[in-house]
Amino acid sequence: MDSPEWVYVVDDDLSVREALSSLIRSVGLRVDTHPSAAAFLEAPRHPGVACLVLDVRMPGLSGLELQSQLTRSGASLPIIFITGHGDIPMAVRAMKKGAVEFLSKPFRDDDLLEAIRGALDRARCAYREESEIDEIRRHHALLTGREKEVIAFMVKGALNKQAAAELGVSEMTVKVHRHNIMRKMGVATLPDLVRMVERLNAAGSSEPGRG
Asked: Is the pLDDT of residue 63 over 80?
């Protein structure tokens, strides 16, 4: 069974939190509201797909500051900004940093719900990508130290004899390692293995294709 999808709402105005919570629940989504950025950061996060509806101006940490903090921490949480004091430069800053939408109060219910649907679509893609990368990492963790050395030669297109000469082993040993690598990584072809390593490298795992 799929995990439920959540919408976090962070706004210092209780009446706004209650109104947004009611609206979002009316379309079958789960809502978790917080009165401040600090309260949101301190609260545990629900697993799975989620997005954030965030007020720009709040006492303490502002919405834009929270966005920056989440970005620095690597959190992939699509953000919809709402504000009663918005201006064009502020909206540009928010969108450049990856915000999905910037809505000025009062906004239409349908506009917010459409933005939430778009944010959850983006979150779904990111969650699926993260899950697939985690699976690749689990496969890669099964490799021995020597196999991790051999895989670096494989993704560079090196011949078995080249890898063998560099590593000081026989070509047959390299062939055995290649077979074990393909089996442990769960792939049938070299192009599939290369794509896996490229995804790990793009996600910040440089070890598989080092050298």
From this structure: yes
Pairing mode of beta strands 30-34, 79-83: unpaired
Annotate 167-185 with b (16+ C-beta within 10 A) or e (fewer).
eebeeebbeebbebbbebb
| The model's pTM | 0.73
Q: Does residue 209 surpass a pLDDT of 90?
A: no
Q: How far is CA 31 from the centre of its chain?
A: 20
- C-alpha to C-alpha distance for 17 and 53, rounded to whole angstroms: 10
Residue 69 and residue 77: Cα distance in Å, rounded? 12
Contact 35, 17 (CB under 8 A): yes
Give 6's DSSP letter: E
The 10 Å CB-count burial string (b at 16+, else e) for 107-142 is eeeeebbebbeebbebbbeebeeeeebeebeebbee
| Confidence at residue 72, expressed as pLDDT on a 0 to 100 scale | 87
Distance CA 152, CA 211 (A): 7
Consecutive H or E run containing 52: strand 50-55
Residue whose tokens read 């944010």:
119
Assess contact for 38 and 68: CB atoms under 8 A: no
Contact between 4 and 34 under an 8 Å Cβ cutoff? The reply is: no
Closest CA to 8 of 59, 38, 45, 56: 45
